[in-house]
Amino acid sequence: MGKINKILIANRGEIAVRIIRTAQKMGIRTVAVFSDSDKDALHVKMADESAYIGKSPSSESYLNADKILEVCRKMHVDAIHPGYGFLSENAVFAQKVIDAGIIFIGPMPKAIKMMGDKLMAKDAVKAYDIPMVPGTPDAISDETDALSISKKIGFPVLIKAAAGGGGKGMRIVEHAGEFFEQLERAVSEAKSAFGNGAVFIEKYVTSPRHVEIQVMADMHGNIVYLFERECSVQRRHQKVVEEAPSAILTPELRAEMGRCAVDVARACHYVGAGTVEFLLDADKNFYFLEMNTRLQVEHPVTEMITGLDLVEEQIKVAQGERLRFAQEDLHINGHAIEMRVYAEDPMNNFLPDIGKLAKYRPPLGNFVRCDSGYSEGMEIPIYYDPMLAKLVVHGVNREEAIEKMIEAIENFRIVGVETTLPFGRFVMKHEAFRSGRYDTHFVAKYFKPELLLSEAEIELAAILAAGQMLKVLNQTPEKFIHKQVSPWVLNRKS
Known about the structure:
With 494 residues, this protein is an alpha+beta fold. The longest helix has 24 residues.
């Protein structure tokens, strides 16, 4: 391995922009790739060079491994950073990159393959005494046996796809009578999403919290954990709000989970940045779920509390450098919260929205960070994930971070599409979140679209009343109204 001089970012949007910024800081040239929809995208404008790789559908562009490698050869690229999503956890792609003599900024293909299959991952970590959710050790091969095992485990149980993630191929079975129907649905969905219908069974943990540990490993056997992220506020099994550290972990529990995460990384000879995911039950028992062999969407909250640039560390490790810090050098500084700002309508079951960003003005301030791949005037393409930005804040403690997030949400001006900003404010103001007593059922338990509407109506009614008062005083209410109404109320499309 040697110094990397030019990186191709095999991705788009905010993560491509984020990688480019770190590469520029390190004096490394960058190559952006783009589809028809992204020809005027921010990451293309920021990179030193760019190359067209195909039509808008990801299958014809960002998932076209051979086309990406062809660009690398033509532009004399030293390394590829896959970001997250697309080809980031594709072991075949990683091997092709290595075979082409290019550095893959990520783990070795064997580790990606091992951790990409949940059953293979569980088998790999058996020797390290890592807590597991009770369930089947192998993929279901006999439906009747699977039902018998489920009865022994005790309902409810969870049927899960062995490959992939994102909640696809996952079904909760409340009782034996619906087992076969839910099994058929899980297998069908897994085949459709991942091309692999293998599923297995786990005991369904009630009131679970989703807590993950960030790890970093070099090629010389050094592995550290960079503390935890709480990711329990989710919709459709996908994260919306993340924070670091967790509101409920004790130092002892954090150290124990960190040790287990390091052992998981050691079990697959991991190199680079990775995340080990755990379920935490109501009694604070934790269970290994899976390992994500890439940079996570929510990595900024870890950066905020550690002061590290994880992309920079990834690049240095990929160059063969040793980690420049040991576990005892790492400390938690304050509290960070991230909200994923999606072009989705929380009033309509979080349905994705598309359109032109007539106004797009992220909040400013020393306490706020906004990672985004969009700017004012851009169109939101229908072909990709609808995330517009990651809004991140840092405070000296959790209470301050929550208040700063509310302020940041209210100062984020977006016109042209519906967004999850009002939902984010709902979360920050809800007692369950503020107290730290929440789990992955937060949305199902507490959120109803009409709660946002009623809050808006109350606010508008108060503003209209104030406007009437000003009219009586022969004053003009427009300025007052603009100042007082929440941006997301003003930003709602008529």
